[in-house]
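Second attempt. The first submission of Protein CBG22181 had a stray character pasted in from the spreadsheet, which I only caught after the job came back as garbage. Lesson logged: always re-copy from the clean sequence file. Corrected sequence (185 aa) follows.
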Amino acid sequence: MPNEKVIVTDELKAKGIDKIDLELHKITVAYEDVSKRVPDLWKEHNPDLVIHLGAHNVSKTIKFEQQAFADGYCSNDVNGCTPEGNRTTCASDEQCLKSCINCDELVRDVTQRCGLDGEKQYGGLKVEKSEDPGRYLCGYSYFLSLHEDCSKSLFIHVPPFEGECTKEAIAEVIRETVKSILGYY
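This time the job returned cleanly.
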C-alpha cells in the first residue's frame, strides 16, 4: 500500500516550487519523536510557512485543516505508545487552536489557480476545508505547529492516488497552495 504523503513529499523534493526554498522533513509517526522534532524544526529554520502532510482515504479530495485539538490522542503510535494524559506536550491551555490561514479563501484561490472543477481536471480532484484533522499524529503534530505560530501553519490531508489523481497532480495543487499562502503568482 503506497504512503501518499511520503510519495508526494518526494515529488515536491524532486521538482521543488519556483522561487521558494523548501525544507522537507519526514518525521516518524511516533508521539515522542513528533513532540521533540516539530518545535526543534521551528527553532532551527524560523520558517515563513510550515505545511504538514498526512494521508486520508477520501477519494479525490485534498483537505485543508483549519484547526487541531490539544487532547484525545489515545491511539497507539508506531511504537505502541500514546502521549501522557492523551494530550499534546506543549504548554497551551487552549483545547483547540485554529490556523490564522483562512482555509475558506484558500480553497477558493487554489480551486481557481488549478482549474479544479471537481469533474475533469486531475480526474475530479478538489480541495475543501476540514475542521477535524483527527486525533492521531496528524492532529497532534499540527497542534504543536499551531502553538508555535498559527499564522504560518497548515495541515493538508492528501487522498489516495486514483486515475488522474496522481502524485504529480496532488503535488501541483500543493505547490499552488504554498504560492497562494505566501502571495506568489
